[in-house]
Amino acid sequence: MELGAFSVSLAVKDLAVSRAFYETLGFEPFIGDAEQGWLVLRNGDHVIGLFQGMFEGNLLTFNPGWDQQTQETASFTDVRELQRHLRDAGIDLASEVDESGSGPGSFMVVDPDGNTILFDQHR
Length: 123
Fold this sequence. Notes:
The chain has helices spanning 15-24, 79-88; strands at residues 5-12, 28-33, 38-43, 46-52, 59-63, 93-95, 105-110, 116-121. It is α+β, with helices and mostly antiparallel strands.
């Protein structure tokens, strides 16, 4: 299975304050819209998403079809295939992607310790 780029998506209380904090650690914004309440920051291959008012709790995020620089990969495992694999393995889905579709889509699972994992495909 090719899960794609990995990042941590943080549910933040104040986007500007969080941005300033992570910029102090050497992260720089590379995509997003602060006015919409979200930014994605990078420090080398390390990626952190900051999201204000979009979801509860932090997420582990995989982006099938992207590498760590958000460049399209030559091959990847589609989110629908990933979802089927996890369901067949007995993993409960917190949200689902329509398996009859194609292209962009996302679904979520929760690991045994309560951590939410988002599989978010953009192509």
